[in-house]
Amino acid sequence: VQLVESGGGLVQPGGSLRLSCTASGFTFSSSAMSWARQTPGKGIEWVSGIYTDGSTTYLDSVKGRFTISRDNAKKTMYLQMNSLKLEDTAVYYCNFRDSASYWGQGTQVTVSS
Known about the structure:
The protein is mostly beta strands. The chain contains no helices and eleven strands. Strands 2, 4, 5, 6, 9, 10 and 11 form a seven-stranded mixed sheet that branches. It has a four-stranded antiparallel sheet with strand order 1-3-8-7, with no helix packed on it. The termini are far apart.
C-alpha cells in the first residue's frame, strides 16, 4: 500500500488549497478513505472521510469550508479547502484502513498572514 499526498503550501487566511492523495497497492474504488491532520504537540485529528457510495463526513470545524472527493479512475482522493483559518495549519495525511491502518508521508499546510 502506498499513499502519496501533495498540494500543501503556504496560504493567507481566507485562501484556498486543494490536497491530493494518490493511492496504489489496494483496490481504491472499494475502499473508504479519510483525511486527518496533526499539529505540533497535538495528536492526529480526523478531518473528513469518504465512503465507497460517495457519502462524506466532516469534522465540525471544517464543515462548509472543506470538500472531500474521489476519482476512482485516477485512484486519487482530494480535499478542497476554502476559507482557510490560522487553526487549519497542520500536516495533512490521507489514511486507508483494512486489517491495518496506512498513512501517507503528509503534506504541510500553513495558514499565515
